[in-house]
Design brief:
The complex is a heterodimer of chains A (250) and B (220).
Chain A (H helix, E strand, L loop, with lengths): L10 E10 L2 E11 L4 E5 L6 H8 L7 E6 L2 E2 L4 H10 E4 L11 H12 L4 H14 L15 H13 L5 E5 L7 H16 L3 E5 L3 H7 L2 E6 L2 E6 L1 H6 L4 H11 L1
Parallel strand pairs in A: 3-8, 3-9, 6-7, 7-8
Antiparallel strand pairs in A: 1-2, 1-4, 4-5, 9-10
Helix pairs in contact in A: 3-4, 3-5, 4-5, 5-6
Chain B lengths: L3 H40 L4 H15 L3 H11 L9 H26 L4 H8 L4 H31 L11 H12 L2 H31 L6
Classes of the chains: A alpha/beta (250), B mainly alpha (220).
The complex binds adenosine-5'-triphosphate and magnesium ion (MG).
Chain lengths: 250, 220
């Protein structure tokens, strides 16, 4: 019932609707993200970007339509939610690291309790990813001892430790001081270069141009425009997109 | 004048009393912490009726004199068909009293755990109970610790009330000797020093634990 044809990878939204009480926050969302594709989502505050990507790993429920991730229907079945979350990692605006655990333990907790790995195995993989995000020397510190940029890179490493096929980013740089944004975007760009499927809510337009295969503009719960970055930035078709772009680019 | 020789003579009796004080307090601390944890879980559970029930329990215990609660357990419960020995009446009364305060401390501790962190655990696939045990519990425990420690110390001090139902603990021993030998200053001084020593040791251990749990947060 939940498993569609095996070659159906990536993410498919079909007529997805969500309400918070009487507020219609997602309106008939149709969206396909192919395996390996990098999609940047932008739009004004309150347009439903976070809600949309949080539906992908079922941090939010939706009321109608369907979302399928790598052939798995995202619905209320616990088994499906578990399987989807095995494939999908997520990075949040506020890092959401575990404040009471060292950087290393932040990266090993889920490996050990979700994947049942030994401490040694988990440590090894954690160090591997901490090296990739270039902070292996911080492994034994606590989150409070790191800069925001470093904390966000730890959050990325922590997600990668679960070997996801898809990564979701919800405004990963908007809580950072401007001088720390670069290091996080560079890490994400590297990840993109390695073929990770990515859906990223961000207003970093330089990053979108450099990395995205497609940029999506949302407004009032709907996807208004979806186009490759060059077309999206240089020739937006929709008037609302144009207005939004002129606001954030000036 | 203080008769030091008399005080010295009383030491074996006092040590016996202290043993009982420590035993009753220890059991009550353990039971009240467990009851506090369960009570707190019910207090914040999604079952509204349980929330109100626990809230009422906490209000009742905090809003009535402790001595009355002790009498209620020892003299009142038997007429409801529950007859406990002096010892267990003491443990139960003390546990009931302390658990109400623990419930509130633990609940305050829970509010210090950010909601967002639940999202992180969910996205990593952690089960709710793993998240509770390895994430919520240690974060909440740290912020609940100071007030929990306060209740633990008060549990020890409040064990003195149990002399009123005839439990032969430290205060009982002192009062008993005074009744026959009238050396009140010696006896009260002695038990004050003993209580203070116990409380200081427990506080010191508690503060060590506090510093340990604070370590991740005092970073820079
Ligand atoms: N838990 C919630 N309960 C009720 N309403 C909510 C909830 N979360 C979000 N909303 C509402 O849903 C709408 C979409 O919110 P969402 O957070 O998805 O927007 P967003 O595009 O991510 O905005 P931002 O750029 O500010 O992050 C908003 O109007 C918001 O107020
Ligand atoms: Mg958002």
């Amino acid at each position: 019932m939940s498993e569609a044809s095996g070659d159906q990878v990536g993410i498919q939204f079909r007529k997805v609707n969500k309400w918070f009480g009487s507020m219609h926050v997602l309106c008939d969302i149709d969206l396909d993200v192919a395996s390996g594709e990098k999609v940047v989502v932008c739009g004004p505050s309150g347009s439903g970007k976070s809600t949309m990507i949080r539906c992908i790993n079922h941090l939010e429920e939706y009321q109608s339509g369907s979302i399928v991730v790598d052939g798995i229907e995202v619905n209320n079945h616990k088994a499906n939610i578990d399987r989807v979350r095995r494939r999908v990692g997520m990075v949040f605006q506020n890092f959401n690291l575990y404040p009471h655990l060292t950087i290393l333990d932040n990266c090993t907790l889920a490996q050990r309790w979700v994947r049942g790995k030994s401490r040694a195995e988990a440590n090894e993989l954690a160090m591997h990813y901490l090296e990739r995000v270039r902070i292996p020397d911080q492994a034994h510190k606590y989150p409070s001892q790191l800069s925001g940029g470093q904390q966000q890179r730890v959050a990325i490493a922590r997600s990668l430790c679960m070997s996801p096929e898809i990564m979701l980013f919800d405004e990963p740089t908007s809580a950072l001081d401007p001088e720390l944004v670069r290091e996080v975007l560079d890490t994400m760009a590297e990840l993109a270069g390695e073929g990770m499927t990515m859906v990223c809510v961000t207003h970093e337009m330089g990053f979108a141009r450099q990395v995205a295969d497609r940029v999506i503009f949302m407004d009032q719960g709907s996807v208004i425009e979806s186009a490759p970055p060059n077309e999206f930035f240089d020739n937006p078709r929709e008037e609302r997109t144009q207005r939004f772009l002129s606001q954030i680019l000036h | 004048m203080i008769d030091w020789a008399y005080m010295w003579e009383a030491v074996p009796d006092l040590i016996n009393g202290l043993g009982m004080t420590l035993l009753v307090s220890f059991l009550a601390i353990i039971f009240s912490l467990l009851a506090g944890a369960v009570g707190c879980a019910l207090r914040v559970s999604s079952v509204k009726a349980l929330n109100y029930l626990i809230a009422a329990y906490v209000e009742f215990i905090r809003g009535t004199p402790y001595l009355v609660q002790v009498f209620f357990v020892f003299y009142g419960l038997p007429s409801l068909g529950l007859k406990l020995s002096i010892f267990w009446s003491g443990v139960v009364a003390l546990s009931i009293w302390a658990s109400a305060f623990h419930i509130e401390s633990f609940r305050a501790g829970l509010t210090s755990v950010s909601k967002d962190i639940r999202n992180a655990s969910a996205s990593l696939g952690l089960r709710a109970w793993h998240h509770g045990l390895f994430v919520v519990f240690p974060i909440a425990a740290r912020s609940a610790l100071p007030s929990t420690l306060n209740t633990v110390v008060s549990t020890i001090k409040n064990s003195a009330y149990l002399q009123a139902i005839g439990l032969v603990e430290l205060t009982f021993v002192a009062v008993d000797r005074i009744a026959y030998e009238f050396r009140s200053i010696e006896m009260f001084l002695a038990i004050c020093v003993i209580y203070l020593a116990v409380v200081l040791v427990v506080s010191a251990l508690g503060h060590r634990l506090e510093r340990r749990l604070d370590r991740p947060y005092v970073g820079r």
